Amino acid sequence: MKPNMNSFLPAIFLIALQFLCFPNSSLSSTPGVHSISHLLRIQDRQRAPPSVQEAAASAVLRRLLPSHSSSFHFRIITNDQYGGDYCFVIENHPSYTRTGDPQILISGTTGVDIVAGLHWYLKHRCGSHISWDKTGGSQLSSVPKVGFLPRVQEAGILFTRPVPWSYYQNAVTSSYSFAWWDWNRWEKEIDWMALQGINLPLAFTGQETIWQKVFQ
After folding, report:
1. Which of 54, 80, 102, 164 gives a 20 to 30 Å CA spacing to 211?
2. Which residues are CB-neighbours of 210 under 8 A, at least 6 positions away?
3. Structure pTM?
């Protein structure tokens, strides 16, 4: 996936404001719940259109498993369908009739949720393993050939996020590792984050500007 790195900053900035505005309130308190709900509504309004998110998820699949780029169909859904939760749903594609047609339908409330659903299916239904290169890399030889992907139960598989955001990274990595990365390495890392369901990575791009706006 190739998002604008600045798109991560509003969420981080808004989370910081949550604790500045409500320093003595836990997330379970009424002010905390209302504040987080407000942030989520803002984030949903700023999200890319469904077609863009679906295309980004398809691009991850082409880079990860190009031989099966036509085996999956991705679709954005609204979280209103599932009680307001962010989630992914894996189903047998209703229109599958022959080899070459999409066999598995993965729906999600965001592009990241769709890609996380793809990872879940490849891991739990196909026995594959997706990790960093130095810890095994992408081991996909167990994925069946096109047209022979394992089916799921007729009711489908639904997974909801227990929390809205899955956070990743720490401050020191920006200088120790990221400073030396080119776009190809960044793209691989962003794809890996999406496959793991991470939707809030630490991004220092423009961080000093945010500090100035918050503390001045």
Report:
1. 164
2. 9, 12, 13, 16
3. 0.81
